[in-house]
Design goal:
This protein is α/β, with parallel strands linked by helices. Helices cover 42% and strands 15% of the residues.
Length: 182
């Protein structure tokens, strides 16, 4: 009997298609061993502005789709830049849609950070995500500082992280934390 791959849903805090956060998530997706599958969420930028009057039976279909993918995931990966010393508005909006729902409590989560700075956003996200009862797996934290570098330097750093096992090590630590929990 073969077991299904561990399904990790990756949430990118930047909606720029060419963002370093997304580029790091793409590299992680490519580095996955056969027992792990990563899907990068492409719904965050299309979510309407959160309004508690639109929850319950009035929840927009795209929000339901977003929440369903989170429910199906064995764990979440968050890669988020820091905008003006905080969480980007669109990403915070996506989190706000999940606050009163039951998809995220105790869901394992790892951070993949694409900058040598941005500790304020990591602190803020940690506070918000813990308040939402997500389980942050700190031993899987990945920091690969590619922000601010040119395309060629970013590509070189990502290839090096793939070749030296940095990406795989973080993913393996995250997978191990998920499997020991359940």
């Amino acid at each position: 009997m073969t077991s299904r791959p561990l399904f990790l849903y990756a949430l990118c805090g930047s909606q720029r298609q060419a963002s370093t956060s997304r580029r790091l998530l793409e590299a992680m997706r490519l580095a996955c061993p056969d027992n792990i599958a990563i899907e990068i969420c492409d719904l965050i930028g299309a979510l309407p502005i959160f309004n508690p009057d639109h929850e319950g039976g009035k929840t927009p279909p795209i929000v339901e789709k977003f929440a369903a993918r989170i429910r199906e995931a064995d764990g979440l990966i968050v890669s988020c830049p820091e905008y003006a010393h905080g969480i980007p508005g669109g990403f915070k909006n996506a989190l706000d849609w999940l606050v009163s729902r039951d998809e995220v409590p105790f869901k394992p989560l790892m951070f993949a950070h694409a900058s040598h700075r941005g500790d304020l956003v990591l602190e803020q996200l940690t506070e918000v995500l813990r308040t939402m009862s997500l389980r942050i797996v700190s031993e899987a934290f990945l920091r690969l500082p590619i922000a601010g570098k040119g395309d060629e330097a970013q590509a070189e750093a990502l290839v090096q992280a793939l070749n030296n096992g940095l990406l795989l090590t973080s993913l393996s630590r995250f997978a191990a934390a998920i499997s020991t929990e359940g």
